[in-house]
Design goal:
The protein is α/β, with parallel strands linked by helices and 210 residues long. It contains six helices and ten strands; from the N terminus they run ββαβαβαβαβαββαββ. The protein has helices spanning 21-32, 50-57, 73-85, 103-108, 129-136, 171-194; strands at 2-3, 10-15, 37-44, 61-64, 91-94, 113-117, 140-147, 157-164, 198-201, 204-207. Helix 2 links the parallel strand 3 and strand 4 (61-64). The structure holds glycinamide ribonucleotide (GAR). Residues 16, 18-22, 95-96, 116-118, 129, 179, 182 line the site of glycinamide ribonucleotide.
């Protein structure tokens, strides 16, 4: 069993492609004192991502990095990693980052890249997870906070939270219900890192003190 990290006040980098409501929720948990962390930088691969403006408004360094300006994914990720390294961060937090993370990232931050996915993994990976859940007819769905590995939404699971799927749900209504859980579950998972309570063996994560 390997201890993921010693207790500390976390330095976070956030990667976001869109709205940034998960970033907001993490920021709010820090402000409230529920999460022992500081957000050092927010990076987006989308110029128009509202998350960028939200970060600036909160006095957090924000940068748009255009993937198409780089020859390939490795070069793009090398640059992103170099920007993140300047801030000496402990964790890279994907908050609606709609891009597969590659080897460069994972080599630089093994077990330190975290994602939230709007389904109960391993069900409904990839895009439109909420629509997939509605179409499949499951009675429950939810969100999963997990470590990122080289697969798509396949990494070790840290926390999950469950919501009911109602007969009248469509993608939007289910997404809204799941999002409310995401906003509580993500910072709680990050706080487990801050408290040094996470261990990993094989693909399983163990939480001490529960
Ligand atoms: C969230 O629902 C998050 O789970 C999902 O994108 C949304 C981002 O919202 N992420 C994925 O689907 C990643 N596979 P936000 O920008 O308001 O945080």
């Amino acid at each position: 069993m390997i201890k993921i990290m010693e207790p500390r006040r976390l330095k976070l980098a956030i990667l976001a492609s869109g709205r940034g409501s998960n970033f907001d929720a993490i920021y709010a948990a820090i402000e409230k004192g529920d999460l022992s962390a500081d957000i050092k930088i927010l990076i987006s691969d989308q110029e128009e991502a509202p998350a960028l403006g939200k970060a600036v408004k909160r006095g957090i360094e924000a940068q748009y990095i255009e993937p198409r300006n780089y020859k390939n994914r490795d070069e793009y990720e090398n640059y992103v990693v170099s920007r993140i390294k300047e801030h000496n961060v402990d964790l890279v937090v994907l908050a609606g980052y709609m891009r597969l993370v590659g080897k460069v990232f994972l080599d630089a931050y093994k077990w330190k890249v975290i994602n939230i996915h709007p389904a109960l993994l391993p069900a409904f990976t990839g895009l439109h997870a909420q629509q997939q859940a509605v179409d499949y007819g499951v009675r429950f769905s939810g969100c999963t906070v997990h470590m990122v590995d080289e697969g798509m939404d396949t990494g070790p699971i840290i926390l999950q939270s469950v919501v009911p799927v109602l007969p009248e749900d469509d993608e939007e209504s289910l997404a809204g219900r799941i999002l409310m859980e995401e906003h509580k579950t993500y910072w709680q998972a990050l706080q487990l890192f801050a408290e040094g309570r996470l261990f990993i063996k094989g693909r399983k994560i163990y939480i001490t003190g529960t």
